[in-house]
Amino acid sequence: MTTTRFAPSPTGHLHIGHAYSAIVGRSYGDRWRLRIEDLDTGRSRPEFVGEIHADLQWLGLEWDGAVLVQSERSAAYASVLDNLRADGLAYPCYCTRADIAAALQAPHGDARARYPGTCRTLPDDPERRATRPHSWRLDAEKALERNGLPSWLELDGNRFATGCADFDDVILARKDAPAAYHLACVIDDATSGVDLVVRGEDLRSSTPVQRLLQLSLGLPEPRYLHHPLVLHADGRRLAKRDKAPTLAAMRADGIDGHALAAQLRKGRLPAGFRLGNA
What we know:
alpha/beta; 278 residues; 3-stranded parallel beta sheet
């Protein structure tokens, strides 16, 4: 029994790219879970959750079991973060985006670094943590020392190796959210029993750090399927912010969602779209 999932963010209407990803995941999953990734409280809207449900039902896609809603799982994330802190794998970071940008522009700064490690070696100061906004970051160097370089297995049987350059001290939790994307993703996949992660090619770069977190937390290793993205015919990426054609608009225009889903299962896209990697 293979378990897959579809994990949209309710920050706007779904588009044809979301529909394709959902259908690929449903096609490979004996069980198909639905997860609402609504930790971005500034952009997530309850009304879009209802639209996600309506879009999936219009396509004829039925999920298995209860919907997992990330905003309802703060306690679970906090418990795992406590474990990472106790293991010395997470540290508080007080840097603002401006601080990080300034460090990367310094004369001897490493332009390739995504986070310059400013707070990595600061002594723990409970009073400072209690009075100053901060996030929690993964100490990737320590995690790699303990676990080694991870790899991952794609559904086609290819195993992908990683290198040190694939890792960064990513944010695990923000001052205004109990968990950030990478931490919540691996915890929720394990909680839902997901053993095949189906998602777009654009998220392949997230896999190394998520595998490192799985190893650090003793979580099961899933397989992965990173499918091609749905693009505009001219090669542009679809994006909510660019007002890509939405499934809600297609529903309103009377398009047959079941027929559209049948075409997407065959890899056939409506006019104006193509599969590829942007």
